[in-house]
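Much of what follows relies on a compact textual record of a protein's fold. Here is one such record, which you should read through line by line:
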Amino acid sequence: MKSRRGLLLRLSAFTGAAGLSGCSSLLAKQAESPTGNLDPNPRADDLPIRQHAWNDRLRRDGDGNELLPRHFRLFMLDLDVSPSDSAAETVELAMRTLEDAYEFNSDGLLHILGWGTSYFDAHGSLDASPIRSPRVLSRTDDPDLQAFDAMLVLASDVPSQLAAAESAMFDTRPTLAGADVQGRLGDVFSVADRRGGFIGEGLPAAHADAEGVPSTIPESAPMFSGFFSGRSGSQASEDRITISDGPYAGGTTMHLSRINEAFDNWWELAQSERVQRMFSAEFSPEDIDRGDLPFADMVREHASEDGQVGHWEKVARARKDGEPIILRRDFNTIDGGQAGIHFLSLQANLGDFEATRDAMNGWWLREEHEELRDRQNNGLLEFIEVVSRANFYVPPRDRRAFPST
């Protein structure tokens, strides 16, 4: 990852004598005319104004749960040009190219362009933005706290479409699914990091050669843990995670964690023990299907009686008005040959994500039983490690090119 000093030097060179204040004034202009001299998006009526509004475009299972696309690619981006009408038009035309080429659904291509802490910090508005630099949220982890200018999220059931979209955005591919490439993100950004992954039955088993995954993982497992992630009752609604007022209204905040998993010992446990660690002691393997799970809020009682608590029963306590406060779009990865999760979380306020992680830590339960420790007997914590964190703001679709106050 490029250094923070390097970023400032590049932006200083781009903005000349005006420095970062010049950058800020250019961005203020962009706020009034987000796409420069371009006509309105011709497909605007067919697309949700919220970039993060995917749910109506997803497949569903028999229990009504939204099923994420099976394949993801993430691109961490560094800005290589100064903000300007021309740069904004390039970004907007690049995103319109994706929309012209594929339907905005799982069979086609779902996408998000979010803007990171480096971008807001560079023109002096990080404190006023809805995001902040990532924080260490656990005394058992020492993550790399990362800063990027932007992140492009691509997701599809068809992996070849992700490869084609990447080539169109960051290489020289002239057309994409029959549509002319009108603009390339690679003309404005350089790719600082590229990440990928998958979710769905059969895919974890197909990658059982990665470190941390035993060869015995069943074909039916949608995640390396073996359990389904994304039950509708455990997910915040898209309305709840949308910023409701102010200059960033209609957008949302996005947190990305890379979490390494070591599940070799996990699959040596009995199924009943895995259910208890993932969910809680009140459930048996027969109770765990894809339907909604009743939440009894008995985690303290389970801690004192059993000396062990489940992951789900801790996290489920992080609610407002009885409803979850974050929307997860996490997926498996084997980046670097190590099994893990790219934990993509959407929320109206980053404090909601931090509150959810605090509930997951479960340290307030240690006093209930001597066998319950920071990691041991504490849900999934002994099997996972957070290795990086980064934060982003996701603007509405009509303000996705260089958002500003």
In short: The first helix runs from residue 4 to 15. Residues 1-28 have pLDDT under 50 and may be disordered. The chain is about 25% helix and 20% strand.
